[in-house]
Amino acid sequence: MDKIRQNTLHGEVAERIRVMITQGKLTPGSRVPEKQLCEQFGVSRTPLREALKVLAHEGFVELLTNRGARVVKLTKTTLKNTFEVMQSLESLSGELACARISEDELTNIEVLHYQMLAYYKSGNMKEYLLTNQQIHEAIVLASQNDILIDVYKNLNHRVHRVRFTAELSNDYWSKAVAEHEAMIVALRARDGANLGQVLRRHLRDKLEVSALDEMAE
Q: Are residues 62 and 117 in the same domain?
């Protein structure tokens, strides 16, 4: 991993640590290895500790008095509560997107959709999931509501830590793809009410197949 240029300060440090937590390189409940990360990123303790304050505010880490920071464990209750909020955010973003989306934005989402279908048909689930997420983010961006976008990004980062892909049936994947097809139809028709309902249902289905059984209450 490349060292960080000093002039990017704590924002990029926070993003690097956020990605490490999301990808499981820093596991829930583990201490954040400050000295190691300073050496790895090529920064001093000051921007690192400022980054940890940002991540603590976002709910990624817990600051320990005179003992550094620890990665927060995501519980079943927290995950369920987070998804309840995200369902409302995605539903609202769909309604707003239908009223405000540009033709270029719609075209971009359609291109992503067909790429996602190709990955699904070829069995490339890694790229399928990445493209799937890009579609959801593009719909949220098309809402043109900065507050909604900021809150969604923060919550979305948190739930990325959860494993959603284990032991999923063909029926689940088929249903998920069908729901994405319905999203595109609703966007083309500028049918905000319908898109909002589809997005809410889609996220509820995702929660039901997440790794809840592996998590503490």
A: no
- Report pLDDT digits (tens) over 60-97: 899 998 788 999 887 888 888 888 999 999 999 999 99
- Domain boundary (24, 49, 71) is at 71
Classify 31 as helix, strand or coil.
strand
| pTM for the whole structure | 0.75
pLDDT by residue (tens digit) across 108-119? Answer: 999 999 999 999
| Domain co-membership, 101 together with 176 | yes
Q: Which residue pairs from 1-10 have beta carbons closer than 8 angstroms and sit at least 24 positions apart in sequence?
A: 1/40, 1/41, 3/40, 3/41, 3/42, 4/41, 4/42, 4/43, 6/42, 6/43, 9/47, 9/50, 10/47, 10/48, 10/50, 10/51, 10/54
Q: How far apart are CA 42 and CA 158, in angstroms?
A: 26
pLDDT at 207: 76
1 domain-assigned: no
Q: Report the Cα–Cα distance between both ends of the chain, in Å, rounded.
A: 35
d(CA 170, CA 178) in angstroms, rounded, equals: 12
Number of domains in the chain: 2
Query: Which amino acid would we find at residue 80?
Result: K
Q: What is the pLDDT of residues 19-59, one digit of tens each?
A: 888 777 898 889 999 999 999 999 999 999 999 999 998 88
